[in-house]
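can u do me a favor
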């Protein structure tokens, strides 16, 4: 699903890809959760942490990739994945994570990432992995933008 706008000459295109829409939607959900937590805190209600997955820095993910003891999943658009992704990362649609997409070992370390800290697609994918019974689930909040900003090596699709 891509929305496009063309200038009179057709040279300037504005594209909003699925990942951008996903980030906006996930952000809206996060805002709603934050508002609920704030309201509960004001009324003295007990609140629980909503994220059951961990968070890893770019450097931590790089070290794990170096050991081979991790499965990394890119939740960006397929075109963004092709442009460059974390080495060994497999593309998986953030809102359709299925058992066939993930390793058989439920205790395998899984890391999900998307575009940047403002994107919530990896949160959705990580939550799905937890629901499927995986126990070592993490996100890399900095996303591919943080990975590239840190000048880490990227792989490109063939």
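np, heres the sequence
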């Amino acid at each position: 699903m891509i929305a496009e706008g063309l200038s009179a000459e057709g040279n300037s295109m504005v594209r909003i890809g699925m990942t951008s829409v996903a980030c906006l939607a996930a952000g809206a959900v996060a805002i709603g959760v934050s508002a609920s937590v704030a309201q509960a805190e004001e009324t003295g209600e007990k609140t629980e942490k909503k994220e059951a997955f961990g968070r890893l820095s770019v450097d931590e993910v790089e070290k794990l990739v170096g050991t081979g003891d991790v499965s990394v999943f890119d939740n960006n658009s397929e075109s963004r994945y092709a442009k460059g992704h974390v080495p060994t990362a497999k593309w998986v649609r953030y809102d359709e994570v299925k058992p066939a997409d993930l390793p058989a070992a439920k205790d395998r370390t899984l890391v999900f990432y998307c575009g940047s800290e403002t994107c919530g697609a990896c949160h959705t994918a990580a939550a799905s992995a937890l629901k499927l019974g995986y126990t070592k689930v993490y996100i890399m909040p900095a996303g591919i933008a943080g990975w590239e900003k840190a000048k880490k090596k990227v792989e490109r699709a063939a």
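The chain has two domains: 3-43, 54-149. hope that helps!!
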